[in-house]
Specification:
This protein has 187 residues and is mainly β. It contains three helices and 13 strands; from the N terminus they run E-E-E-E-H-E-E-E-E-E-E-E-E-E-H-H. The protein has helices spanning 32-39, 167-170, 175-180, and strands at 2-5, 12-15, 18-21, 24-27, 48-54, 59-65, 73-79, 81-88, 99-105, 111-114, 118-124, 129-135, 144-146.
Length: 187
Protein backbone atom coordinates (compact mmCIF):
# COMPACT_ATOMS: atom_id res chain seq x y z
CA UNK A 1 0.00 0.00 0.00
CA UNK A 2 1.18 3.48 -0.85
CA UNK A 3 0.13 6.75 0.77
CA UNK A 4 0.54 10.48 0.33
CA UNK A 5 -0.39 13.53 2.37
CA UNK A 6 -3.00 15.75 0.78
CA UNK A 7 -2.86 19.55 0.48
CA UNK A 8 -4.93 19.61 3.69
CA UNK A 9 -2.70 19.19 6.74
CA UNK A 10 -3.27 15.80 8.39
CA UNK A 11 -5.35 14.33 5.54
CA UNK A 12 -3.98 11.37 3.54
CA UNK A 13 -4.80 9.25 0.51
CA UNK A 14 -4.05 5.52 0.55
CA UNK A 15 -3.72 3.26 -2.50
CA UNK A 16 -3.59 -0.48 -1.87
CA UNK A 17 -2.16 -3.08 -4.18
CA UNK A 18 -4.92 -4.79 -6.18
CA UNK A 19 -4.60 -8.51 -6.90
CA UNK A 20 -6.64 -9.46 -10.00
CA UNK A 21 -7.28 -12.99 -11.25
CA UNK A 22 -9.89 -14.86 -13.28
CA UNK A 23 -12.44 -14.53 -10.44
CA UNK A 24 -12.14 -10.74 -10.08
CA UNK A 25 -9.77 -8.93 -7.75
CA UNK A 26 -8.82 -8.46 -4.09
CA UNK A 27 -7.60 -5.33 -2.28
CA UNK A 28 -7.29 -4.17 1.32
CA UNK A 29 -8.40 -0.51 1.62
CA UNK A 30 -6.93 -0.29 5.15
CA UNK A 31 -3.65 -1.59 6.54
CA UNK A 32 -2.78 -0.50 10.08
CA UNK A 33 1.01 -0.55 9.64
CA UNK A 34 0.82 1.77 6.61
CA UNK A 35 -1.74 4.06 8.27
CA UNK A 36 0.46 4.32 11.40
CA UNK A 37 3.52 5.10 9.27
CA UNK A 38 1.63 7.91 7.54
CA UNK A 39 -0.32 9.44 10.42
CA UNK A 40 2.00 8.54 13.31
CA UNK A 41 -0.46 6.35 15.19
CA UNK A 42 -2.91 3.51 14.51
CA UNK A 43 -6.42 4.24 13.24
CA UNK A 44 -8.81 5.69 15.80
CA UNK A 45 -11.10 3.28 17.65
CA UNK A 46 -14.00 2.79 15.24
CA UNK A 47 -17.27 3.94 16.83
CA UNK A 48 -19.40 3.54 13.71
CA UNK A 49 -19.18 2.11 10.19
CA UNK A 50 -21.53 3.58 7.59
CA UNK A 51 -22.17 3.40 3.88
CA UNK A 52 -24.05 5.40 1.30
CA UNK A 53 -25.33 4.41 -2.13
CA UNK A 54 -25.64 7.19 -4.69
CA UNK A 55 -26.68 7.52 -8.27
CA UNK A 56 -24.64 9.40 -10.84
CA UNK A 57 -24.67 13.15 -10.22
CA UNK A 58 -25.29 13.01 -6.47
CA UNK A 59 -23.18 15.46 -4.46
CA UNK A 60 -22.96 14.89 -0.71
CA UNK A 61 -21.32 17.49 1.52
CA UNK A 62 -19.39 19.48 2.50
CA UNK A 63 -20.00 17.78 5.87
CA UNK A 64 -18.10 18.17 9.14
CA UNK A 65 -18.72 17.90 12.87
CA UNK A 66 -18.46 20.22 15.84
CA UNK A 67 -15.14 20.08 17.65
CA UNK A 68 -14.94 18.94 20.27
CA UNK A 69 -15.62 16.10 19.96
CA UNK A 70 -15.00 16.10 16.21
CA UNK A 71 -15.13 13.03 14.03
CA UNK A 72 -12.26 11.50 12.08
CA UNK A 73 -13.22 9.57 8.93
CA UNK A 74 -11.59 6.85 6.86
CA UNK A 75 -13.49 6.68 3.57
CA UNK A 76 -13.32 4.34 0.59
CA UNK A 77 -15.45 3.50 -2.44
CA UNK A 78 -16.71 -0.11 -2.51
CA UNK A 79 -18.46 0.15 -5.90
CA UNK A 80 -18.81 2.73 -8.65
CA UNK A 81 -16.66 5.83 -8.85
CA UNK A 82 -16.56 9.18 -7.04
CA UNK A 83 -14.54 12.36 -6.77
CA UNK A 84 -13.85 12.72 -3.05
CA UNK A 85 -13.09 16.16 -1.60
CA UNK A 86 -11.19 17.04 1.60
CA UNK A 87 -11.59 20.69 2.72
CA UNK A 88 -9.70 22.24 5.63
CA UNK A 89 -12.31 24.07 7.71
CA UNK A 90 -10.18 24.35 10.87
CA UNK A 91 -9.76 27.99 11.91
CA UNK A 92 -6.07 28.59 12.57
CA UNK A 93 -4.86 25.69 10.41
CA UNK A 94 -1.91 26.43 8.11
CA UNK A 95 -4.00 25.01 5.24
CA UNK A 96 -7.33 26.63 6.20
CA UNK A 97 -9.63 26.87 3.17
CA UNK A 98 -7.49 24.56 1.03
CA UNK A 99 -8.97 21.47 -0.55
CA UNK A 100 -7.89 18.50 -2.59
CA UNK A 101 -9.77 15.92 -4.61
CA UNK A 102 -9.04 12.21 -4.92
CA UNK A 103 -10.83 9.92 -7.36
CA UNK A 104 -12.01 6.80 -5.57
CA UNK A 105 -13.31 3.69 -7.32
CA UNK A 106 -14.63 0.30 -6.38
CA UNK A 107 -12.00 -1.30 -8.56
CA UNK A 108 -9.04 0.46 -6.99
CA UNK A 109 -9.56 0.28 -3.23
CA UNK A 110 -8.22 3.81 -2.69
CA UNK A 111 -9.11 5.43 0.63
CA UNK A 112 -8.92 8.86 2.25
CA UNK A 113 -8.29 9.73 5.91
CA UNK A 114 -9.83 12.98 7.21
CA UNK A 115 -8.92 14.20 10.70
CA UNK A 116 -11.50 15.98 12.88
CA UNK A 117 -12.35 19.43 11.54
CA UNK A 118 -11.71 18.59 7.91
CA UNK A 119 -14.80 18.80 5.74
CA UNK A 120 -15.79 15.95 3.46
CA UNK A 121 -17.76 15.86 0.22
CA UNK A 122 -18.01 13.66 -2.83
CA UNK A 123 -19.65 13.58 -6.23
CA UNK A 124 -20.82 10.21 -7.57
CA UNK A 125 -19.64 9.63 -11.14
CA UNK A 126 -21.59 6.41 -11.69
CA UNK A 127 -24.95 4.95 -10.69
CA UNK A 128 -24.66 2.64 -7.69
CA UNK A 129 -21.61 4.36 -6.19
CA UNK A 130 -21.10 2.89 -2.72
CA UNK A 131 -19.04 4.91 -0.24
CA UNK A 132 -17.96 3.27 3.05
CA UNK A 133 -16.95 5.18 6.16
CA UNK A 134 -15.16 4.23 9.36
CA UNK A 135 -15.91 6.93 11.95
CA UNK A 136 -14.28 7.81 15.26
CA UNK A 137 -17.60 8.96 16.75
CA UNK A 138 -21.18 7.79 16.41
CA UNK A 139 -23.54 10.00 14.43
CA UNK A 140 -25.17 12.71 16.56
CA UNK A 141 -27.43 15.04 14.65
CA UNK A 142 -26.64 17.98 16.94
CA UNK A 143 -22.91 17.74 16.07
CA UNK A 144 -23.36 17.48 12.29
CA UNK A 145 -22.77 20.59 10.17
CA UNK A 146 -22.55 21.35 6.47
CA UNK A 147 -21.17 24.05 4.18
CA UNK A 148 -22.30 24.87 0.68
CA UNK A 149 -20.45 22.89 -1.97
CA UNK A 150 -21.07 25.85 -4.27
CA UNK A 151 -19.37 28.48 -2.06
CA UNK A 152 -17.32 30.61 -4.49
CA UNK A 153 -14.78 31.34 -1.75
CA UNK A 154 -13.96 27.61 -1.58
CA UNK A 155 -14.03 27.18 -5.35
CA UNK A 156 -14.62 23.42 -5.29
CA UNK A 157 -14.68 21.64 -8.66
CA UNK A 158 -17.98 20.24 -9.86
CA UNK A 159 -17.28 17.07 -11.83
CA UNK A 160 -20.97 16.34 -12.60
CA UNK A 161 -23.72 18.11 -14.53
CA UNK A 162 -27.06 18.82 -12.85
CA UNK A 163 -25.94 17.86 -9.32
CA UNK A 164 -28.48 16.23 -7.02
CA UNK A 165 -28.25 17.42 -3.40
CA UNK A 166 -30.21 16.90 -0.22
CA UNK A 167 -32.30 19.79 1.06
CA UNK A 168 -29.82 20.20 3.93
CA UNK A 169 -26.89 20.54 1.52
CA UNK A 170 -28.81 22.97 -0.72
CA UNK A 171 -29.46 25.24 2.29
CA UNK A 172 -25.96 24.97 3.80
CA UNK A 173 -24.17 28.22 4.62
CA UNK A 174 -20.99 29.49 2.98
CA UNK A 175 -17.62 29.38 4.74
CA UNK A 176 -17.90 33.10 5.60
CA UNK A 177 -21.42 32.63 7.01
CA UNK A 178 -20.29 29.66 9.14
CA UNK A 179 -17.28 31.65 10.40
CA UNK A 180 -19.52 34.62 11.31
CA UNK A 181 -21.75 32.25 13.30
CA UNK A 182 -18.69 30.67 15.02
CA UNK A 183 -19.49 27.25 13.50
CA UNK A 184 -16.02 26.37 12.27
CA UNK A 185 -13.79 23.87 14.08
CA UNK A 186 -10.54 25.04 15.66
CA UNK A 187 -7.15 23.71 14.64
Amino acid sequence: MEYRELAVTGAYAFVPEVFPDARGDFASPYQESVFAAAVGRPLFPVAQASRSVSRRGVVRGVHYTLTPPGTAKYVYCAAGRAVDVAVDLRAGSPTFGRWETVELSGGGGEAVYLPPGVGHAFAALEDGTVMCYLLSEEYRREHELALSYFDRELGLPLPVESPLLSERDRRAPTLAEAAARDLLPRY
